Amino acid sequence: MFKEKYSILVCNSWEQLEISVPVCSSLQVPALQLHMSKTAMRASQKDFESALSQVKRLKDPGNEVKLKLYALYKQATEGPCNTPKPGVFDLINKAKWDAWNALGSLPKETARQNYVDLVSGLSSSSDSSSQVKPEADRKQPGYETLVVTSEDSITKIMMNRPAKKNAITIQMYNEIMLALKAASKDDSAITVLTGNGDYYSSGNDLSNFTDIPPEGIEEKAKSSAILLRDFVDCFIDFPKPLIAVVNGPAVGISVTILGLFDTVYASSRATFHTPFSHLGQSPEGCSSYTFPKIMGPAKAAEMLIFGKKLTAAEACAQGLVTEVFPDSTFQKEVWTRLKAYSKLPPNAMRISKQVIRNREKEKLRAINAEESRALQERWLSDECTNAVMNFLTRKAKL
Ligand SMILES: CCCCC/C=C/C(=O)SCCNC(=O)CCNC(=O)[C@H](O)C(C)(C)COP(=O)(O)OP(=O)(O)OC[C@H]1O[C@@H](n2cnc3c(N)ncnc32)[C@H](O)[C@@H]1OP(=O)(O)O
């Protein structure tokens, strides 16, 4: 698009102007509005030349801006659009023609000035965006148990209790739900869940069961079942591609919900463990449905009933994990891949996810409600109470 030779003209007039370029359907170019002041400096031949060479050094500014630059360049060098309109199927040339034609009879000098101003604005914003801010500065406020960041069209939700192996407290369940709801509405293309430290997550924080309200243990089981159902529903309903970056071992609910993710990348150090019978509990996160579907009923039963722990390679062979990366290069390889995916057209990705997932949503919600009801009862059982007490009194570990 920018390979044409440039010719240079001297600017000799100035006036207030407002240009509107209509939306180009093929490239989604919104209306362009350029405002210039009468007092602005005129662009000299040298300014224009320098803008022309500057533009080649800029980071790719995206189609919308490229079209603006193209149109202004053509107007500045050739005047009003003077070529036949390309056919409807010649999408790129039609978008370029539309952008140029929309400048109407804008004087060449004004187009050249607009070009210089646009390039100057792009240069300063690209200078500031090339300075990478530390993660602490990019962190979204309002989360105590998570670090939530958004950049490169990726919202990253990182569980952040490394000293407790990212065990999920009540507060963390609530914050993950909030972060997912915010990510579903923000302008990111994809969303990632990951863990800080050596674990992805050790699952439900077992001390959640110790905080019994005055209404009694039944009430605690009831409110926990509601929390569980709401938490899992957020994953069922999440509208954008959702990726788990499993940086280390994963236990319990952090494993079961993986069946609701679109992609699961695992470090070679990760393991996948669902020891529900050991804990006197039963499967959740829709795993009673997704795991048999993903890996077949026999393999699913070994994990969900007998608590067989899978290595990353085994989980990948059974279809729970998309791909395993060596731990030494895990972060680098995964984030390079995700940055490339995040540049794909976001609406197309969202619709593809809908087409893949929507027909199962109602079913998954019903399964989630049923699993939550079963657990509500399990939490009141002696088997569960003893297992939790054994862990909390240091008598047992997985
Ligand atoms: C309300 C919704 C409920 C949804 C239902 C969900 C169900 C599940 O997720 S079931 C799975 C529950 N998880 C577990 O049973 C794991 C229990 N943890 C362990 O067995 C071990 O901690 C370990 C194997 C995960 C790691 O062992 P190790 O490497 O030896 O590290 P430590 O045990 O010393 O752990 C460090 C620190 O973190 C605490 N911790 C780890 N996991 C949990 C946990 N799930 N709940 C509570 N606390 C946990 C551990 O107690 C240590 O604490 P400090 O001793 O205070 O340092």
CA-based shape = elongated
Q: C-alpha Rg, in Å?
A: 28 Å
Instruction: Say how many strands there are.
Output: 11
Terminal residue distance: 60 Å
| Order of secondary-structure elements | EEHHHHHEEHEHEEHEEHHEHEHHHH
- Uncertain regions: pLDDT < 50 for 5+ in a row? 1-40
Kindly report the oligomeric state of this protein.
single chain
Output the number of helix runs: 15
Which CATH top level class of the largest domain fits? Alpha Beta
Classify the secondary structure makeup into a structural class: alpha/beta
Question: Helices and strands in order, then pairings?
Answer:
Blueprint: E1 17-21, E2 32-36, H1 45-57, H2 63-78, H3 91-101, H4 108-129, H5 135-138, E3 146-151, E4 154-159, H6 170-185, E5 190-195, H7 217-237, E6 242-246, E7 250-251, H8 253-256, E8 263-267, E9 271-273, H9 287-295, H10 297-304, E10 310-311, H11 312-317, E11 323-325, H12 330-341, H13 346-357, H14 361-378, H15 382-392
Parallel strand pairs: 4-5, 5-6, 6-8, 7-9, 8-11
Antiparallel strand pairs: 1-2, 3-4, 9-10
Helix pairs in contact: 1-4, 2-3, 2-4, 6-7, 7-14, 9-10
Bound molecules: ligand LGGBLMCM.
If you had to describe this structure to a student in words, what would you say it looks like?
This is Enoyl-CoA delta isomerase 2. Pathway: Lipid metabolism; fatty acid beta-oxidation. Residues 44-128 form the ACB domain. It is found in: Mitochondrion; Peroxisome matrix. In the C-terminal section; belongs to the enoyl-CoA hydratase/isomerase family. This protein has 398 residues and is α/β, with parallel strands linked by helices. The chain has two domains: 45-122, Up-down Bundle (Acyl-CoA Binding Protein); 146-397, 2-enoyl-CoA Hydratase, Chain A, domain 1. The chain contains 15 helices and eleven strands. The strands form three sheets. The chain has a six-stranded mixed β-sheet with strand order 3-4-5-6-8-11, with helices on both faces. A three-stranded mixed β-sheet has the order 7-9-10. Strands 1-2 form a two-stranded antiparallel sheet. Strand 5 (190-195), helix 7 (217-237) and strand 6 (242-246) form a beta-alpha-beta unit. The protein is elongated and about 85 Å long. It starts with 16 loop residues before the first strand and ends in a 6-residue tail after the last helix. The structure holds ligand LGGBLMCM. Ligand LGGBLMCM binds at residues 164-165, 167, 202-208, 224, 227-228, 251-253, 279, 284, 391, 397-398.
